[in-house]
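User: Teach me something about this protein's shape.
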Amino acid sequence: MKPEEFASKLIRELESLPERKTAPMRQVRRQYSQTLHAENAQYVLEAAHAIVDTDQHRWIAYELIADHPAAFHALDRQKLEALGCGMQDWNAVDRFSRTLSGPAWRDGLISEETIYDWAHSSNRWWRRAALVSTVALNMTSHGGQGDVPKTLAVCELLINDHDDMIVKALSWALRELVVHDAETVQNFLAAHEDELAARVKREVRNVLETGLKNPRSRTRQ
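Assistant: First, the predicted structure itself:
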């Protein structure tokens, strides 16, 4: 079966689900990932691109790559940017960044220069991708060990960007860093008191003080 045929078959099965929710869709994806284990990296990447090109269920394509070690380790800047091309909402960006670009950065497949270039992009979604990519460095439940210098370097690049999508991502990046170095995050807030958006300061301080982003609603990080 050609990669394009594989992608079409997977999309048809996803579209036939009674409910297109994450859990049942991921169950289907896992079944298809099993059939990909014997395929080489190029085949998996081509199948993933075929899914991305339809602009349907991008996150499924990203998970297919992440679940195939050879395909994941074949990623580089050019491949990642092709897979992220056309992202038009926060959900697509966050899936891309947490599943692919962040782990690729963490594992040395792309450099800081790539992330910094995204942070300087005129496209808000690539700027958000730069910030959310830091989450993979720090989210312990997803293998992050914590990287204060890299995270803060990206945050500093976008500290004066008050686009709502960037503000929310900046808050998220700093909140994930709290568990690794709360004191440094506190100092960062103090040093940039006049630059940071009110939302960032409020949410990050809430986490520093209570462990919750919004204590009144009991919303966790």
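Now, about its shape. Strands lie at 212-214, 219-220. The first strand starts at residue 212 and ends at 214. If you'd like, I can walk through any region in more detail.
User: That's plenty for now, thanks!
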